[in-house]
## 1
Amino acid sequence: MFDRPRNTALACLLFAAVAGYFVIGHYLYKVPIGLDASAFLLGEPLQKLTLLVFPRLQHAASGGILLGLSLLAIGAVGFFAMRRSVRARAAKVDAGRREFLTGAGSGAGIALGSLVIAGGAGAARGFLGVGLGHDGWRGVAANIGSDQGIVKTNPEWKQDWKGARVKGHRRLGRTGWNVSDIVLGTGGIRGEDGEQVARLAIERGVNYFDTSPDYAASGSEQAMGRAIRGVRDKLFIATKFCTPMGHLPPGTPVAKYMAAVEASLGRLGTDYVDLCHVHSCDEVERLLDENVHEAFDRLKQQGKVRFLGFSTHTPNLVQVANAGISSGRFDVMMLAYHHGMWAPLPELIGRARSEHDMGVVAMKTLKGAKHHGLVGFREEADSYSQAALKWVLSNPNVSCAVISFVKLQHVDEYLFASGQQPTADDVAILEKYDSLIRGTHCAPHCGVCLDSCPEQLPIHDVLRHRMYFEDYGWEKEGMRLYSMLEKNASVCASCSAPCLGSCPLEIRIQERMIGAHELLTPS
Ligand code: SF4
Ligand code: SF4
């Protein structure tokens, strides 16, 4: 049958359609999310090989490479099968016609056709979700920036706020820096738009920004590097001991820790950063890893980093923060702190200040940032962020509050709270917010529920990634982080839910976990 070129051509195109649908479609769905190398078949060895050729590569290339190799393989099957068939056929005809048939074009046309068909079938599956029972990437894209079925309160860009500037400064502990009370959080800063937002915030008096290599897979550091040209010396810059792929585990070699910071310096276009954090630290072992401390000491000696810090917002926050304070090694502590926070935190913050004169940076200041999506909160939503910032800054032991700036409007909105004390109206807004989010917001990822889960799921992390997707608008980041968890919430739907009732905040854990899995899983 396959000695007839026509039959071979049809078989090749059919193969391309099937392989394209299942293989190319799979990759076309997953690659644009920017998943980590480990999410792909042979992803990690492929990534290592790629780094040998492109040592400066910052992103996971494995998915893209597998996509390209699969396409090439489909094209090659078409090419060789067709050429073989044509040659077999040509052996039966006269010499002149044989030469024509076996020429260079004998398989090229089918190879090209296979590529087009494989790409089309892949796009139909990956981008349109044909045959999958969902909308493919189109569905993900529709969720991005959508309201998830909740009526959003479009914040009014109020005339009164326009032109707001930093009005309050505080001493950042023993660093001696007098920093703006509002700090530019750059988790949502990327590209030219982000650069513009950062420039405006700096122009209006923000003199401290907090970035990280793993924000937008280094997009934040790159944008900030462009935004600070010419004004670097006026700024206090904080980054993290991380790579664009995420945290470095305890025991990472000293040289690798140092290389990660040097890569940050390159992206930021500066010779030094003021502060480097052990980032999002949930275990004392990583906090006190002697290699990270040696790396810091050497970087400090070389003038590349001035101060050491840590950030934590995990179930072990109190344990990690206490260990960090007791060590006396850290100049700055950045921790989740917002209204309605659980009791030990003010005391912990006071200890950091009184015992070691540490700078204290409050993060996660908007308690989930659900205000624009809450039904029944339309009137208050515009002023919520200012009330929340004022509440955080009402603690005199807090040096400053970091908040994610994403839009130009945020510069006016957030800086309007600078230097102000909370009023009775602000407190009423915060109380209303708390009552509306009761049962849905995992704050502050306290971990009380963890022992109740027989599957040992990282409930706090799953719910945090859901928050990134749903409330922060960092949809791809939420999906990427969720895909990197060792255990996910796929088992929750068939579980008898012993976690029920274990959350002191009355969060309906099973329901929230099932919803998180649906929201954060690509297929
Ligand atoms: S429902 Fe999910 S989170 Fe709750 S106990 Fe079961 S597996 Fe754990
Ligand atoms: S679900 Fe409740 S108990 Fe569990 S980490 Fe979140 S706030 Fe704490």
## 2
Amino acid sequence: MYIRVSEIHRDGLDVVANRGKAWIPRILEGMDPYPLRTCRLLSAGLVLTLAGRDLFAEGSFVAEGDAFCDRCTEAFRVTMEKEFHTVLVPRDHGPAGATNVELHEEDLEIGFYDGAGVEVNDIFWEQVALALPAKLLCNRGGCGCSGERAPGSFDILKKLKEEKE
Ligand SMILES: [Zn+2]
């Protein structure tokens, strides 16, 4: 769903309140959810606000997908939940605009938009892609797993982050 910048008023635009919920299950249509087999949004929220020409996208989603366990190959269901805060800078602004925002809001993700409007499905697509699990492991007791495994890159990153904090 394409939202024009001109549709976003001073108080922002609550996309779901404005456009209804019927489009939510279709947001991820056409997406390759690898390593999942299927993936769909169960719920989604998104508020767009403008600060100058920078477009703030604050939203959340719950997504559900089907996968095969990497360990025992059983089919199981994965649920992903995420809140996100992204600022989309007009492409013609160049990197200077993005740098300014980054200095003030460290936890913001930075993206780009064409300056006229934004494809909302792409925002969710990107956020879901970021939330996709790197390893697919079911929670079955009979999985046959000893519980020991070599640390993956995610674990190493997590450990580094914990040490930093
Ligand atoms: Zn398993």
## 3
Amino acid sequence: MSKKNDEKVIVIQNGDDMPSMPASMGSMKINKTASWRSIRPVIIEEKCKRCMICWKFCPEPAIRPEDPPVIDYDYCKGCGICIEECPFDAIVSEKEGK
Ligand code: SF4
Ligand code: SF4
């Protein structure tokens, strides 16, 4: 058997399999990335189940894991990943400056 076949394969099936914090946490804290944003994610509190998947996938330190999670618009660059990953459609996209 080749070495490659002996390597452990990690399959991400749910939020429990994700790293405990975003890889960029800390490194981007000095750069306020809000100026890049053309869309603004907005959490609909009534639909949010507090699963924190959005916090785990956000590539910036832009979501605070509170109850419900809070988006820090100083650091949100509007990439839309949280909108795509929320399993409950609890984050909507609004055009910036609306
Ligand atoms: S992923 Fe969606 S449901 Fe889960 S905490 Fe974030 S906004 Fe709420
Ligand atoms: S759009 Fe969502 S995932 Fe992207 S930076 Fe903003 S809060 Fe994070």
